[in-house]
Please model this.
Amino acid sequence: MRVFDFYRNNVSVDHLIYGMPSTDRLFINKQPSGPDQQKCNLMEFRKWISIAQNNPLVQAEKISVFDIYKVGVGPSSSHTLGPWRAAQLFLEFLKTGGYIEKVKSVSVLLYGSLAKTGKGHGTDKAIILGLSGYDPVTINTAGITDILDEVKKQQQLLLWGACVVPFDPGNHIHFLREEALPYHPNGLTFIAGLENGVELRQTYYSVGGGFVNRGEEEELPKGAEKGLPYPVHKAADLLKWCSAAGKDIWEVVLENEKVWKEEDSVKQGLMGIWKHMKECVYRGCHKEGILPGGLQVKRRAAPLNIELLNGHSYSDYDSWIAAIRSGGDKFRHILDWVSCFALAVNEENASFGRVVTAPTNGAAGVIPAVLHYYTVFCEGGDNEDKVLQFLLTGAEVGSIFKRSATISAAMGGCQAEIGVSSAMAAAGLTAVLGGTPGQCLMAAEIAMEHHLGLTCDPVGGLVQVPCIERNSMGAIKAITASQLALRSDPEHAKVSLDDVVKTMMETARDMHFSYKETSEGGLALNIPVNITEC
Model:
């Protein structure tokens, strides 16, 4: 899907314009250092925006709920999970081409945001694990450190169990901080040297939420040729189908999912996603200590869990939930627990734990926190049908942002991650609380409207400060947005979800690159750090 990143007044000469076809892309000629840098031609940009909106790749993109919710390893979907998947794709390329046993060397080039914050985000570690044949869904996360230590000690990689190659992470993974590729800020190139002297190169782009593609060489998404009963590109389309078919949002989404999977398979898959979310929350609420990376950030969810339970005993997840419920339903009690749930997930995420992208790793705590708010404190409890309705509704909102804007902080700042996750959670919560389709989308709009302009400025390049707390804030905003929508008539709303999606992307284009996951602006500049571990 084509997206654009440009700066309205003055484009830095070191940054290309992302998303334009290579035959027509407008490049900014490099000028001497100083203030007199060439200005962008806004008419050219408007032309390209129009082209993008009619791009068949954008129009054809059909996203499954299992693309929005993916099980992976933290701390970042774009900088950890995406590069991990890219490494797996490169291995597949080598295997299917009959090259795997002929490889004599491997190196990796990281560009743009991947280069600038890749150390803190564990990009190099994810690449090593991917090239070593491990999968983020099944790897024993407790053994990750040992695997990486062994590679560093032996100075070699075992590719797909078939070929041993020399590999020094410090010399074979290159962080090209001053270089960027044209399609997207998160670009990486794998280079394999064969025994006959030939070099094979494959470039991939990690475009947010664990999605990976080949850029302009990318074909239409898998399954795009299949017609959906209810094709949705914008929120207005979704409302139209709900009205015409007399269905709720989750029912429309389920019908579309059935094009790719049997209904039982869809439901089982989503309940599996919920199981992973619950396990992550529970783990995070029971682990104390300091998060890795060198910032010396102390875990807070576990001490908060102990304080809030006030001596109540329990033995497993279910009895833990019962103990939480026994504490009552006062506002402050609920508020504390929602924050605790969100903190727990993102502390796990920050320590290479297993999380569910929703729609990204950096924003993985919002939906589990809000869904736990519903299952623990709202009437209905942990009802399977309600959980499914929540997840299906939220996923469609995430898909709308993915199609029409971005879910990548490297393209749109944190509004594209926490903002989108909050909008998803608000819509899902509204659905299970009995809201109409219009109220669900109104809740999503309210949640995003009040995240517009949120920057991504991770201190030390780590997904910790301010990222972890932002999940708590996103969850609370989602609940508030849902309550406002449930008490409102969408017919009287002045701003639609499509309006706010468009505005979010325009804001992303206007946002300076230093606030897009580069750690070159905001808190990342103003908080003194002394990082030695990454």
